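We emphasize that the prediction below concerns an isolated chain of 258 residues; any contacts that depend on oligomerization or on bound cofactors are therefore not represented. The input was used exactly as deposited, without trimming of termini.
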Amino acid sequence: MSTQVNKEFSGLNALVTGGTKGIGKATVERLRSAGARVVTAARNGEESEDLIIADVSTTTGVEHLANETLQRLGKIDVLVHVVGSSTAPGGGFSVLDDTEWDKALSANLLAAVRLDRVLVPTMVTQGSGAVIHVTSIQRAMPLHEATLAYASAKAALNTYSKGLSNEVGPKGVRVVRVSPGWVSTKAVKDFVQLIATSTGTDYSAAEKGLMESLGGIPIGRPALPEEVADLIAFVASPRAASINGVEYVIDGGTIPTV
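Result of the prediction step, given as a token string:
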């Protein structure tokens, strides 16, 4: 890789939500390694020059994050919205009351909508910018037992992103979706190990069982956070200047259809 590509984000400012772990952390490291000034956000931790503590599932949290980001960076060139979660109980649609639906929509859809509403107009004013929304293959393969609300919110984020790209693309701002399947983050690894321990098997067998429950992953393994971060960095970079309004799936082939 050339030096120019290695430092292709030199002079650019980025905000990455959920940047202290998993895909978000890998994305922060990837963008910084390419020369970007990166501010990130998390709900917990100790605030620092490059970390803003904010709960983006709330209106006040988004307002705080957006205002602090602009104050620290002056302008923003890349916005990567990684934050997403599912806390709903198992049991199917009937156990999802309004509170659970509100939580899922706030964390997985409205957080991005609210943040875009503040920051994207600043990109439009400067005539350039890239917005990356991390969605999920569950928008196409919803798991009804426990993550139906999450999957529905991600599907809505997918549709919203396409509409936003049509509006701001002509004004110099690109909007791209990155949709991971199973990613081997620390949280997921801990979950697999918990299954292995509770069923009296080993990690490899528990991981294989989970892959089979998804219908299989043709490449035989989950994606790595760094692989997702590389994809995010590419679509956010000047090399992807003509890429707008599309979805990039990184799932090892999990989605079985064309």
